[in-house]
Amino acid sequence: MFFRQIKQRGDNFSYIIADEKTKEAAVIDSSFNTDAIIRILKSQNFSLKYIINTHSHSDHTAGNEDLKACCGGKIVAHILAKINKDISVDDGDLLAVGKTIIKVIHTPGHTRDSICLLADGKLFTGDTLFVGECGRTDLPGGSSEDMYHSLFTKLMKLDDNVEVYPGHDYGSRPYSTIGYEKRTNYTLEKFIEFMKN
Known about the structure:
By secondary structure, the protein is α/β, with parallel strands linked by helices. It has helices at 34-43, 58-61, 64-71, 144-154, 178-184, 186-189, 191-196, and strands at residues 2-6, 14-18, 24-28, 47-52, 74-78, 87-89, 94-97, 100-106, 115-119, 122-126, 163-166, 176-177. The chain has a single domain (2-196), classed as 4-Layer Sandwich (Metallo-beta-lactamase, Chain A), CATH 3.60.15.10. It has seven helices and twelve strands. The strands form two sheets. Strands 1-2-3-4-5-6 form a six-stranded mixed beta sheet, covered by helices on one side.
């Protein structure tokens, strides 16, 4: 599987995953990185199949329409997302990019429509889980109770070796693992106290 983490400006990450044999590709969270994404897609001769949003906040969806106009691809978001989308997904749904299968995990908490995406041992967490922290829950649609459920009954039950790729470069490094977050993430250790403050 081809994989690229992109941060052109600001602290938002975008991701490209692709099947190098079929040349099908998906972009996760187009954000403000459209120019760099387009350069990579063209240089690799990839055909963009999906533009997937981990949630509907504008800093993650900013490049959707420009990317679609340039490279095609269907915009994918959770069924609750109030954005322009071509495909609605929910917990447990699967998307195929060539032979790579992307599993949708509904992880409300930061927003009601937040999803994480699991593909080939890589977990794209949007604003649900960061390196060393988790997403805030004080914005409209946020819920500390939902975040707790998403983190502890879904994400922390994944294998420790699953790699974590967040939506923002907020941590001490750009990616992590589930096992590392279990051992070091202070918001997981003191979640209730943290959210009260």
